[in-house]
Write a structure and sequence with these properties.
Length: about 525
Amino acid sequence: MDKDDKIRHLLDMREQARAGGGKKKIESQHARGKFTARERIEILLDDGSFEEYDMFVTHRCSDFGLAGKIFPGDGVVTGHGTIDGRVVFVYSQDFTVLGGSLSETFAKKICKIMDQAMKVGAPIIGINDSGGARIQEGVLSLAGYAEIFQRNIMASGVIPQISAIFGPCAGGAVYSPALTDVIIMSDKTSYMFVTGPKVTKSVTGEVISTEELGGAAVHTSRSGVAHFRAEDEEEGLMIIRKLLEYLPQNNLEDPPVTESTDAPERADDILNTIIPARSNQAYDMKDVIYTLVDNKEFLEMHRHFARNIIVGFAKFSGIPVGIVANQPNYLAGVIDTDASRKAARFVRFCDSFNVPIVTLVDVPGFMPGSAQEYGGIIIQGAKLLFAYGEATVPKITVTLRKSYGGAHDVMGCKQLRGDLNYAWPSAEIAVMGAQAAVEILEGKNAGKITDAEEKTRYITEKEMEYNEKFANPYVAARFGLIDDVIEPRNTRFRIIRGLQTLATKKDLVPPKKHSNMPL
């Protein structure tokens, strides 16, 4: 074979690898409304930036007819490229090759780029579309999954790990995405579950569809497993690109600060009147968030799950921050088990990658009831408390209205190493609301009053007295528990100035192997 023949052979081999499982399989993939593994990478990365690894790797198994089913690349495309000029590593499972099933060599390809990502300190993005373990390879396939899991664990908190689910992801395969920082699912074309509908029916008798058991709607609204539900794969890939705008390359770097066209000193008069006159009247906290942040851009995570608390990323004068905010518009912003773990996970994510945390507080307390107690509200609420207390990034808390009882403590209070704690004049910081407090403190005295009007007047006076003495921000300010009572219209400027001041902060932590957070 002369030199020209060798070059032609190389080009033919590359063409064969790029063809995946062949034309019919690719057409079938497209018919399902799905892109191929390589098309996904092309959409995700900057044009022409992808450098592929292990294009010619093939499996080593000859059992059960696999000897005649050999495809270059073995069902997964791996390599690195750039997103907005920043290096990322990526693997994309190819469903057109043996259903994207994971073999020993398939796993080794993924492990190789995960190791590379750790070495250079760059994010790793996994695009999942696989029928699961390659049954013909038995325990070697299972070992391959475990090798990936171990690397997910070692990379946790070191480099950002993002998982996209664009097809099936079942059995042991679900645990790699579950170990990563963010999961994105495409609506109607992806699913995740440990055991599928057939096994579920045979074991429990429950008849349920694939979509009902583990579709994107389920995992973004009920289980909280997934953070984003994309309308289609292209939107999912754009979410990944957007998400990386707020994250550093690794835990030793700060998030990228960009130039902002939104004036830092912008004051918003609407904030002075956004809190309703009646303390039990709802309003939308997202209106506050969009008003405060740069150019009204807010990347919300877990939008459909535990809607009584809001988490997501935004920028203040080009500085990326994570926002945690109670939502009075849903369940009055009360904290329940789902809200606790949702917010705790997000706070720890931000702290892992040096993203400052801005907390907007309007919380009446924890959700009462046996369902919450049986669901572990004590341990779930402790997760949020632990996350705030453990976090060493800059933490700025603004109390807009209610901040009652234990919920006050878990929402970034001063005693959990809050760096700057502000309150609006409308803030009510107390053990409980006036109505409940007066009922406890003055219930007996009120009960002795027989005249209904006089009784109402007495209770009203006591509630006013309670509000004056306790449920206002100046009491907390008097004790230094908040740093300042600020005019709402100036909140954006005060947050930005605080972030700039706290850019070099250092919190000391005692030496330890690791903490034992409540799980």
